[in-house]
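Late entry, evening session. Most of the bench is empty. Finally got around to the prediction I had been postponing all week. Sequence below, unchanged from the version circulated by S.P.
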Amino acid sequence: MSAEVDLLLQEAKESIEAAQNYRSELQLRLQGLNQARKQIRGSSGQAREALKRHFTELQAAATRLLSERLAGLLAEVDVIEADSVKPLDDCQSLIEHGVGQADELLREGEAALRCGLGEKEDKLGSFTKKAMHIQLDSLPEVPALVDVPCVSAQLDDSLLSVLRDRVSRHGCVSSHPPVQIDELQERPGSILVRWCKVDEDFAAADYRLQYRRSGSGGSQYEDAYIGRDCEFLILHLDPHTDYLFRVCARGEGRTEWSPWSIPQTGYTTLAPHEWRSGTEGYILSSRRNIALRNDSSQSRCPVLYSDAPTYFCGQTLTFKISAAGQTDRLDSLGVCIDSQSGEESLQRDQAVCISTNGAVYVNGKEMTNQLPAIGVGSVVTFDMEVVNLLPVSNNNLSEGGHFKLRVTIGSGSREVVFDWLVDQAVDCLFFGCSFVHSGWKVLVF
């Protein structure tokens, strides 16, 4: 009986635990539903406000434009009226002046006819002279109605039809943006952002990526990238700091951008790659991720190493050349197990590198495979992964190591792949560079 009770108790405990887990899962799903509802409600409210604000601004702008056009047309009518009436006013003044002269002449003529015989000859003579002076047979010309302006306004419904057509197609409401962020991958002091189309019918010509610091003290979104690629590495990010990322697209033949994707939060825990300060012959940028080989040293300079072993297997280490000097066989860009002081090149044991002439060196030995020469604009990448741990035996001791790393070095459109044997297990490595001549400038990320 006791065993049966213990079994029942055990089953009851398991059922209670299962019920608790079930309730927790349901509560999590309720939270997800609430977040989804909040997103729908919030985005709908924002869309309404955006529509109202946009169309209110359009109405105000259209009213202003129509008022300005009306005022311009009315001004044209005023100018035509004024210019056309002025000659008529001048002609009217001339005619009224002639009517006045004729009235005065009539009065004088009638008075001359009524006067006595003694005065009649003088007054008739004076009247005749005055009548000849006025030129009673000269009449001003009055323009015919067909010769004077008849002002009219030519108006049709073409604007209204065009406006109706454009307004009917202006703006749109979408339930989902055509592009969404697909992946946020942390890198040293940076984040690789990847996105993809979720609307296969949308033909994207360009993408636009923005980011900002998260939290109440966050800044405004700023552009990080505009172009056709579907990924971009955002540099100069502070570790352990949340950032918000969003992306939109512009359709083929369109000028406006699509709605923004749902913002995604990401951060990097990896410290940024930095060059070691204080190395003779090199000047570093404020963030210490750019090194310039100067001409302050007349003798050969030591290798410029990273400040710490911040390159981990499984990551991509990138060198970008923004300025170039004279090449030399001993120049090198690469990674190494340790940062040996006094070395003038990475063409040594416990290091792999590429020279500026494109030669690849492994533990100081030149490979037969060669990459393109390095110059301004060149981008050199290092990728490494642990292949396996080789058991130490008499066979592989002569090979110089028992820890194998598969190394891929890329430059231009070519790459070389090889296995690098080292004599100790490593999970992080130093990187470095060396240039015999000045003028070289290299960015690491």
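Two things to note before I forget:
Residues 2-114 form the longest helix (113 residues).
Residues 392-400 have pLDDT under 50 and may be disordered.
Will write this up properly tomorrow.
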